[in-house]
Amino acid sequence: MRDFHLILPTFAPDFSGVCSTLFELGGTVVIHDAGGCTGTFTGYDEPRWFDQQACVFTSNLDDVEAVFGTDEILLNKIFSSYDYLNSNFIALLGSPSPMVLGTDYKALARIIEKKTGKKTLAFDTKGTEFYDRGVRMALLALAQNFLPAKRDPAQIIPRSVNLLGATPLDVTNRHNVEVVRGLLEGKGFQVLSVWAMGSGLEEIGASLRAQCNIALTTPALETARYLEERYGMPWLPGAFSGQAGAGEFLLQLQALLEGRSFLPYSPPSPKGRKTLVIGDQLVANGIRQSLELDLGLGGVDVLTFFSGDAAFQRPGDACSIDEDQLLERIRSGSYDLVIGDGMYRLFDKPVPCCRYVEIPHVAVSSRLGWSDPAYPFGRSFLELLSPGPEVLCG
Amino acid sequence: MPKQIYHFRLSQLDPQAPLLGVRGNAVSGSCLHYCAPSAGGWGIVRIALLVPESVMLFIAPHGCGRHGAVASMQLGYRNRIFYLDVSAADLVLGDHINKIDGIVDYILAQLPQKPKAFLICASCIDDLLASDYRGITARLTKKHGIPFGEVHMNPITKNSSTPPPLNVQRSIYRFLWNTDRARTPDQGINLIGHFSPVDRGSELYPLLKEAGFSQIRQVAACSTFEEFMEMRNSRFNLLLKQPGRLACQDMGRSLDIPFLRSLVRYRLEGIAESYRALSQFLNYPLNWQPYYDQARQKAVAHQSRLQGLRVAVGESVNGSPFELACALAEYGAEISFIMSSAVADYEWEYVDRLRELNPDIPIYTSYHPTMSTIRQIQEQADLAIGFDASYICPEAKLMVLDSDQQHYGFEAAAALLEGIDLALAENVSAKELLYSKALVV
Question: Among all residues of chain B, which has the CA nearest to that of A12?
């Protein structure tokens, strides 16, 4: 049943996506809500919250403020807090209640920026959309507000890249990002910035010096395309899983930077039962690439509960699925291997008919998965697959 | 970095002082709120599901339901709660309301057994839209033959006279009078407001039995819905924690069950006082003196260990942080700091007592924006009681004293002293323990 959760928890919402993206950038982030939405992000969508400081606040909206529509209360709270905090920017986010009230975040942001002199970003987040929309909005806002007007060709550093779309909601932790960085640096590429784990606003501001961009996750696609259109920066969707899988991507990257054409490989034909990969579309596609090139597996389908791009979809793939659609696929008997968040095992009951390789997706499993060290990048991914996908359970 | 982390001194806490905000709030003026990693409690959903043999349909944008959903999986009650995502289009058209009947039918068809009660939980936006959940639940009760109750997870009403922690308890106990069943008063007494059964070692049980109460009822100890419904037959209600106040008032009006506020305390004299009041209320002289004497001996025995021990008291403790701080100071400890976001009316007595002992005790508020800029405050402590105190004083040993365990009476004072000994002897990871509790904001 659409929009109904019988088995899984509800997923990370759009305001968590924005907050997660802006977390390390030294801004003052204000979620206009009564407190619960902010508590969802801080307690359940942000693994860094306990150990790292960040200025993410709730406006503590109450019913009187809501009914009388007194935006001055919110503005005064922001101005008074501004006395205490030294921020690179201010970000104002929405939640369900102010959405119902028709709150004009852009207008409020203009007022705040005029009064404080600080760049103020407005995000029309609603709490009714998923995190990927929030990450998409935040990445684009960074590109539109913190980059120079023009790209200076003389400053471009050869064999340098930016990684776009890194948030714990998709890649879990900094270590996983460093694995990707290591893969690139191992082949002589230089990672100038990571949007947005491990790089500050200054590094992101200098991103135009990179030769190209790599979209690590699906929410980064819009920003990659924007940077191509605005600044002529070429880009690729990343694929960093496995050895041959990641190797194929690195060859493709090499060809792009050298201005050569690149012939994509032909996927092997399916033999027998298939493999299902569930997660962010680009990350899952990278996993598929490794299964095909490292293990010669054909018949790999990619599913995601979140948005996807038709350009990167194959027959058998599906985006924006619901629980019923996943249940149908898993119980169809067509798959003998499922790769994705450990929570998806819950669909394979009472007698499991698939083998599972668990890779946490924090946007789904929240804190129940974020301590799991498994990650889909590099050669370590292949170790997760042993003893081999041909072993069946059930 | 701000010049100073926002805090008061105890001497500055005065109900007449212009520095204080609305209704004794410890922060002057309104401000953005910081959601510390230590923030959170049981949450509305978990509290409502204290009703035994019940299930819940949570109707809200999925961003609202997420923390409760993950917490329910962590704590093992996910099979009792179902989530209907509400989209922006639903809100405009009211479609989410139209879906309820079909979803309820679907849920009941999926369950191996029909639940004894069904809770429908709405969020802030349905408050703003004035959605009629009272009417919906009445209709569904008639349709399905089991009681449906409405619950509201609506922090937007936190500054109103019916904030969520009080309102959810009304939702729970409404089942007791919102029924056609006749009430048959018996020799029972209810304990109201808390979430876990009062510790079996509490003297409250033998004292009440001695006073002639054959049934001492509390929702957390009920394993069946029928057992829970028996609470409507009790003669008296004892309010152990403030959030149960409105529910007690409702039961007074609807079931003629009078109540006495007899809150959790840790000071021996305060506990003695509460038993005197209870004796008067019940018109029966409770023989609490032996328990007092025992507790007094224990406190004296602990005095040498507590003398000079620097203790920080969090707002998240099970009880009043000011009352607890008073108790600890009287037992010999030194209070390093207290966490508080608002001083309740009944707490001013303890503020005054503490002021006489040490007017310079700092009062911190975990939600002030300046708290986002530091990892620890300058004050030091040997022991921090409560996750909030522990988070800003990470070098201190942690003692939790939360709602997962309910101590009462002189037993609470003893548990406090024993708990301090245990905490000082152990090395727990505050982060691991905090996340294991699945607290929600």
Answer: B63
